[in-house]
Amino acid sequence: MNKTVGFALTGSFCTFRRALETLQELRRAGYEIIPIMSFNAYQLDTRFGESAYFREELRRITGSEIVHTIPEAEPIGPKKLLDALVICPCTGNTIAKLAAGVADTPVTLAAKSHLRNQRPVVIAVSTNDALSAAAANIGALKNRKNIFFVPFRQDDPREKPNSVVADFSKTAETLSAALEGRQIQPVML
Predict the structure, then answer these.
(1) The CATH number of the domain where 24 resides is what?
(2) Which spans in 29-180 are helix H?
(3) pTM for this structure?
(4) How many domains is the chain built from?
(5) Is residue 172 a part of any domain in this protein?
(6) Residue range of the domain that includes 150
(7) What is the pLDDT along the chain (189 residues), one digit of tens a residue?
């Protein structure tokens, strides 16, 4: 395949295990992967697991060191290191920063740096406020060139009516279409 994909994790810790399964699927599909983590994803231990475990799994699956600092993320665009960037999971905080053009984490800088090359960024949203505070930011990104969304749905409409999570099983399909400049449909499941 000869395609290099950045695979970035942000702090939706409850979905990290599904993100790792998605990463393995992309590796099996033949993508070379450069792992990227936000500051919080890289260093915080949570009730969903220890950061050292997730870092080790990323290294094991990809065979690469993790981009986890601003200086490490900066060359992604100028050196054209990626054919696509997948942010999986992508928090409401990261979506807000991308919508506002803020590049103050390794993931947001990787996205900004990568987008300068007119190449696709695939977002697998996972946030409790997608249908409230984050909705405007999701809408803004939906209208941006080279931004593609993994289809998503409400994950718990009764207990968390504003929460959505991407259907991680559709990440590879979304990535393949994004590399052709297409958004798979429907986006909202």
Answers:
(1) 3.40.50.1950
(2) 39-43, 51-62, 70-73, 92-100, 106-115, 135-142, 171-179
(3) 0.94
(4) 1
(5) no
(6) 4-120+134-163
(7) 689 999 999 988 889 999 999 999 999 999 999 999 999 999 988 898 899 999 999 999 999 999 999 999 999 999 999 999 999 999 999 999 999 999 999 999 999 999 999 999 999 999 888 888 889 999 999 999 999 999 999 988 899 998 899 999 999 999 999 999 999 999 888
